């Protein structure tokens, strides 16, 4: 369980920090994965699309590092 202490009664700051910690823990994305059933073919297509996207992103980073 993610916990945040409220300092000096600053609730807005505590809520902001809680949301950041929760997002970093991966709970929302894990819940989203289990929200609905994906057929195996859909999962494969999504994984392939994500791999292509990451490969292109890495190529851009390598190209920018060389320049």
Structure description:
There is one protein chain. The protein is an all-alpha fold. The protein has 2 domains: 36 residues; 31 residues. The protein has 3 helices and no strands. It is flat. It starts with 10 loop residues before the first helix and ends with a helix. The model has no long low-confidence stretch (mean pLDDT 91).
Element order, helices and strands?
A: HHH
Number of domains: 2
List the quaternary state of the chains.
Answer: single chain
Average pLDDT score:
91
Number of helices: 3
CA-based shape: flat
Low-confidence stretches: none
> How large is the share of residues in beta strands?
under 5%
Number of strands: 0
Strand count, sense and barrel status of the largest sheet are: none
How far from one another are the termini? 44 Å
Binned, the helix content reads over 70%
Fold blueprint:
Layout: H1 11-25, H2 27-33, H3 40-66
Give a short synopsis of this structure.
The protein has 67 residues and is mostly helical. It has helices spanning 11-25, 27-33, 40-66.
